[in-house]
Amino acid sequence: MNDTWITVYAPASIGNFGPGFDVLGAAIQGLGDRVEVRSANNNQVKIVDITGEGAETLPREAERNTASRAALLVLETLKSRGMSVGGLEMKIDKGIPAGSGLGSSAASAVAGGYAANVVCGSPLSLRDILLPITQAESEASGGFFADNTASSLYGGAVICKSSRPLDIIPLGGFPGLVVIAVTPKIRLRTEEMRAVLHRQVSLQDSIANMARSTTVVAALLMKNPSLLAGAFEDRLAEPVRAPFIPGFFDLRRAALETGALGCAISGAGPTVFALTDCQDRAQRIGEAMQAAFENVHLSSRLLITGIDEQGAREIFR
Amino acid sequence: MNDTWITVYAPASIGNFGPGFDVLGAAIQGLGDRVEVRSANNNQVKIVDITGEGAETLPREAERNTASRAALLVLETLKSRGMSVGGLEMKIDKGIPAGSGLGSSAASAVAGGYAANVVCGSPLSLRDILLPITQAESEASGGFFADNTASSLYGGAVICKSSRPLDIIPLGGFPGLVVIAVTPKIRLRTEEMRAVLHRQVSLQDSIANMARSTTVVAALLMKNPSLLAGAFEDRLAEPVRAPFIPGFFDLRRAALETGALGCAISGAGPTVFALTDCQDRAQRIGEAMQAAFENVHLSSRLLITGIDEQGAREIFR
User: Fold this and answer.
1) Pairing verdict, β B6-15 and B313-315
2) Which of A27, A280, A284, B1 is surrounded by the most beta carbons within 10 Å?
């Protein structure tokens, strides 16, 4: 155990990553959560401070906060393997607004769980801590899905091959791919966005999404952005979720007309994102997307960034 | 035009390739159709001979035979681009039994269409001839799908990104991957096997197939056969098609217990195939699969082979 503070950063992430509903995810640069921990001489995890985006709304009980809950579950994993572990003190600095569709609860869980492992000397692998982290995140989001947690933990894009047993495939990053994320000032609850999904889909839509999600994986692994064109429309979740994001279809049209390779809802929304391999075009695409939100009287935040290839990491200041 | 005979070979192929219903396909070695053509001084395509598997059952009218129909449509494509083309004489040598689920009609269409282009001096690209070839194949199979035609034409595995407009992504081969194909002595009609499909599927099954088909693409591109484990079960077509293949589930269990990475129906069946990266194990897996068919009183043919990386090609004897 280590009684000086260590700091862990976990990036924001895009769940579904276009057509890959519950299957694909990708971490992004420039936005993330920070968790500081140090060991304590008891068996408790105690939150001593929460700062940043929406800090005042987040639970401070260790069992109910996603970051500390993930840390607790990682410590339990260590105990179950016969290690003697103590307690933790934790400070959380939220960089990602909750309910934005950018994997806010996932990043907190990843940072908390990763930090707990680091402070114990990193005896567990990423694969080992993904399960307790995803478990903690599922308690916040109401569903056991690893597209956000795995991409935030591993960095790059991921395939969630299976939920039970949890099995993911890291696909690495995509240098040169520009991610344009626009977050309107509305908030959607992941649980509600799950409730609107249809339990049955047409075989044709299922095939279309499979064709597109396999195409996205090929584009990522072949580092060929041009393959992404036409592959980002989702027929499983988007038709029922888009109505909760005013102006979405006009926004997408504007993004594509301005030269984006694709445009989709990030996770459960309301953030929408577009992709391009042309850095010079990114600002214009972002402004076109923001203008579409302004047309329906929504202000928004614009982030022009790229895929985060590192995932969760200890940072030193 | 060229009035000496030229010979084109097009490989058999596995449609769906496990979980990729209508989306993934892969060409295989060791089985294929041969088409010979030479130019003729008229505007007709004339079949002068058909030999090989089921030759006596195949139509000899140029408009109704898949190979000559593809050649006709390729010639029409050339005419529409302003080229002056004449007629063709064609001999067809069937290596792939019809109705086996190994892309028999696709290989004929590919060989016929490819040969027509070659005899005219190969003015068209593979991309150009894929559409007329797939059109010809669709008239035989009753559905416009390119998983067999594109893999037979390009070789290796393919993603069918979109049917209309037709857009495919060649993924290349997979050296070291062993394909074990077992064809029982029953025949299934592709059209009937399409009719049994459910028009609606559950969201959960759709997600599962998407997770698995993206995994298969990652395994192919990362050349990592171990990723294939657990990724080959199909929830879209297999549940309704397997009952037409006596003993299928016992056969799959036997293949997996003998060490196969995965086992699935090839295309619309009745051929079933298994994969392994261990050449030494392939014979035992094949025998276990054949024994499962024997248990339900079906004799079968065993082919132990690999992915064909070349696709359609002119052969010189």
Assistant:
1) antiparallel
2) A27
Residue B36 scores a pLDDT above 80: yes
- Whole-angstrom distance between the N-terminal and C-terminal Cα of chain B? 20
R_g over Cα of chain A: 19
Average predicted confidence (pLDDT) for chain A: 95
Candidate from A70-74, A283-287, B186-190 with smallest mean pLDDT = B186-190
Parse chain B into domains and list their residue ranges.
6-172+308-315, 178-306
In CATH terms, are A6-172+308-315 and A178-306 the same topology? no
Record the pTM: 0.96
Structure ipTM: 0.95
Cβ contact B169–A211 (<8 Å): no
The pLDDT of residue A292 is above 90? yes
Cα gap B102→B152, rounded to integer Å = 10
The answer to whether A271 and A287 are in contact (CB under 8 A) is: no
CA–CA separation, B137 vs B78, rounded Å? Answer: 19
Q: What pLDDT sits at residue A2?
A: 56
Those residues whose C-beta lies under 8 Å from the C-beta of residue B315, and which sit 6 or more positions away, are B7, B8, B9, B34
Q: What is the pLDDT of residues A240-282, one digit of tens each?
A: 999 999 999 999 999 999 999 999 999 999 999 999 999 999 9
The domain defined by A178-306 carries CATH number 3.20.20.450: no
Residues of A in contact with B205 (CB under 8 A): 206
Count CA atoms closer than 13 A to B71's CA, side-chain side: 35
Fold of A6-172+308-315: Ribosomal Protein S5; domain 2 (3.30.230)
DSSP codes joined into one string, A277-312: S-HHHHHHHHHHHHHHHHHTT--EEEEEEEB-SS-S
The minimal CB distance from B218 to the residues A169, A197, A212 is found for: A169
